Amino acid sequence: MAINLRELSKKTIPFTGGHRMCAGCGAPIIVRQVLAAAEQPIAAGVATGCLEVATTIYPYSAWGTPLIHNAFENVAATVSGIEMAYRALKARGAVDKDIKFVAFGGDGGTYDIGLQSLSGAMERGHDMVYICYDNGAYMNTGIQRSSATPLGAETSTSPVGKRIPGKPGHRKNLTNIMAAHDIPYVAQTTPAHWRDLMTKVKKALAVEGPAFLNILSSCPLGWRIPDDSSISILRLAVDTCFWPLFEVENGSYQMNYEPKEKKPLSDWLKPQGRFRHLFRPENKHILEELQAEVDRNWERLLRLSKYDSE
């Protein structure tokens, strides 16, 4: 499933510019890479959120694919219903085209209020790909914390003050939760690693049954970073092992990238204004706890991938 860059440069991607997403937002970069990787016709569902709101402002749409918008919490259910209708029509000979179905949701609509819908669709075995663009908060409605928000991050509902130093508690490990559903394909990636992302999209579309991709998506507004630093900050997330690149194929873990020199997590945290308070002396223990959690998760992934490779 090699990516031919020359051929890719000639491809018309069915997602236009002028979509009104914020400058530096990772979500539209993800969508372009996903659609560029697809070789089959795509029908997409998009949950309410930044991506839907800013790309489908009536009467305009940035999408060149069939698209359905649904509520915040049910894109997996909607797309699974479309996939079932397609299968029924194809069995009757009413449709002869091979179509792939992709659902897009942010972390709020995926980790939290859409988790039940997502879990049900995966358990039922629908032939669809679910893509979570994870920017670590409910950015569309005011930067409220979600269960994807890292420990200590400042959001509008976990403000830094005398009572709390940012969000209490670690983020949910949704990628492993999806792997525990024993679906054919699960992976984690970022748009800064475009070849990795597009290869994984091709794999996800190729499997029969459900697939899930968790993609870290920068948010300059919520992360409080310059608009032009999105790609560099996503690379730091991987090089510090906060966001490892790995995949789980039929239950077997495989590490896709191991940094030659694992950078300290502080290298990823420092450029982001939402973590600025953690570098005060009284919050040193939170930095240490964050680093310890990253180290634990990284070592666990290394053990799993080594075990499965043997």
TL;DR?
The chain has 310 residues and is of the alpha/beta class.
Account of the protein in words:
With 310 residues, the chain is of the alpha/beta class. The chain has a single domain (5-309), classed as Thiamin diphosphate (ThDP)-binding fold, Pyr/PP domains (Rossmann fold, 3-Layer(aba) Sandwich). 38% of the residues lie in helices and 14% in strands. The chain has twelve helices and eight strands. An eight-stranded mixed β-sheet has the order 2-1-3-4-6-5-7-8, with helices on both faces. α2 (26-37) packs across α8 (194-206) and α4 runs parallel beside α6 (115-124). It is globular, with a radius of gyration of 19 Å. The model has no long low-confidence stretch (mean pLDDT 96).
Q: Report the end-to-end length measured between terminal Cα atoms.
A: 24 Å
Radius of gyration: 19 Å
Which architecture name does CATH use? 3-Layer(aba) Sandwich
CATH class: Alpha Beta
Share of helix among residues?
Answer: 25-40%
Low-confidence stretches: none
Question: Judging from the principal axes of the Cα atoms, what is the shape?
Answer: globular
SSE-based structural type: alpha/beta
Write down how many β-strands occur, each being a DSSP E stretch of 2 or more residues: 8
Q: Going by CATH, what is the homologous superfamily?
A: Thiamin diphosphate (ThDP)-binding fold, Pyr/PP domains
Q: Beta-strand percentage?
A: 5-15%
Give the strand order, joined by hyphens, for the main sheet. 2-1-3-4-6-5-7-8
What integer is the average pLDDT? 96
CATH topology: Rossmann fold
- Count of helical segments? 12
